[in-house]
Amino acid sequence: MTRITFTGSGVERLSPLRQQAEALAAAFAAADTRFVPVWQSRCLLGDDGLVVCRREDLELTDLNHETSVFLGRRAGQALFAVELRGAAPPPALPAAGFRGLREIVAAVSEADAALLAYARAMLLWQERHRYCGVCGAPNRAAEGGFVLACSNRDCAHKSFPRIDPAVIVLVHRGDRCLLGRQAPWAPGRFSTIAGFVEPGESLEDAVRREVQEETNIQVGECTYTGSQPWPFPAAMMLGFHAVGLSGDIRFNDGELVEACWLTRDEIRRGAIGLPPRESIAFRLIEAWFDTDGGPPLASLGLDNPAFPRASAQERL
Which CATH class is domain 15-159? Predict the structure, then answer.
């Protein structure tokens, strides 16, 4: 599978440095250090792509782990993500330049898209875990922003960044593949089957359960193909191909409003709209589609524009 969007940031994460307070402070103060600003969960886009800032652009004085995260080093420069919490960004930064990650992913390089996903995911994790999940006391960020420690000494619970694993699968049976549509999606837009892994499940068990719940199709062999970080807010999409053992579709859980088996010729003729090519869903379809020796799927222009607004479940 070819490289997928939100992967390959080129950042050396330098995790041992997170526990070295003096080294982090020195990196923060270095003249060549750059900062990735995030304001209201939006990232800064300029005429030439991603905008990274100097410390003075953001009016930063001291290292504050409550609003910043040490991302690591890229091309010799230390990088921090910084959450701007004011009602407006600093005067040096145009508010109009801040865009949602979905909007700007096609306007930046693959490496920068991955960097922004990393920065946004870390800051959103901090934002959503301000209080201890054990006793309810305020958390305090430490270790470069990668640890949230409970301020209650009697509790002292520590939280670490979490991701939500989700399986996403292209089911195929003979010369057909199974695709579905959720109600919030535009008419005609279809994608692969996806859902979150539940406690006590293997990934393969989750694939079989999700497909059965959403379409009533029984699944046999499952083959892992690759993954995609999905920072909306913190999913990890784990891609599979799977063999369908039955063919009659029935909607068991209300997740989908349409589903169908499609041949390559039907897809080629534009019977449906496909997910954006930046997504792992498209890559799963592509890997199956391109095995028949015809024109590559990516050359047919059947995919939707990059990352339209997702459903409430924030799934592909």
Answer: alpha beta
